[in-house]
Structures are given as structure tokens and as C-alpha cells.
Amino acid sequence: MERNEKTRALLAAFGCALAYLLAGKALTAVLPQVPEEAARMWAFVHRCAAAPIVEELVFRGIIQQLARPLGERQAVALQAVLFAVQHRGPAGMAYALVCGLVLGTLRSRTGSVWPGMLLHTLNNLLVFAAG
């Protein structure tokens, strides 16, 4: 990857992450004013659709790709650690680290973020249904 491409990829990752955070803040400000059923629907959309797409594109699609010059295993490990850090609490971080390693390995073996998006979505659906 050329330096210009890396810069654009980093800016894209930053832009995606920032847009995702700002959208979350905006929804948080609005949700207390909506009925509980609508709030649950928005939580579902966020956790089961938006989060898997954005996180797979940023962590496995951009960060892992940029870290590949370090070595494939190191790239998988780096994105998994960064993925874990952005989740809250020790238990959430530990679970996210394992998920990040699995999803990163899947990305590495398939060469695509699509299988990871599907698995990430399925995981979040199961967690949402259980919670």
C-alpha cells in the first residue's frame, strides 16, 4: 500500500469512527424522549446492523490491512487489541478481544470483511436476544 493510500485509509477509518460516535451521541440524546418500544428498536438497529458494519470496516477492513506489513498474525492481534479497548469493562474487553481475534483470522483467511460482518451480526443478534 502506498503512503497516499495509507493516509486516505486512516482518514476514512477516523471518519467512520467519528461518524459512528456522533450518531450514537445524537441517538442517546433523542432516545430518552421516545417510547420504550422505539428505543429498543433503535438499540437493535445500532447493535445488530450499524455496529457490525462499521466495526468490521474499520478494524478488519482498514486497521488490519494497514498493519499487514508487521506480519499477518501481528496485524490480526493489533486490530483485536484495539477492538477490545473500545469496548467497556474488563469482561466486555476480554470477550471483544477473543471476537476480534476470531474475526481478524476470518478476514485474513478469506480476504474479505463480508464473512466477518455476517458472523459479527449473528453474534450481536444472539447477545441482543439474550439481554
TrEMBL record:
Source species of the chain: Faecalibacterium wellingii
Keyword Manganese attributed: no
Name of protein: CPBP family intramembrane glutamic endopeptidase
Lineage: Bacteria, Bacillati, Bacillota, Clostridia, Eubacteriales
Record keywords: Hydrolase
Residues in CAAX prenyl protease 2/Lysostaphin resistance protein A-like domain copies: 41-126
Keyword Hydrolase: yes
Entries under PANTHER family matching the protein: CAAX AMINO TERMINAL PROTEASE FAMILY PROTEIN (PTHR36435:SF1), SLR1288 PROTEIN (PTHR36435)
Stretch forming the signal peptide: none
Origin superkingdom: Bacteria
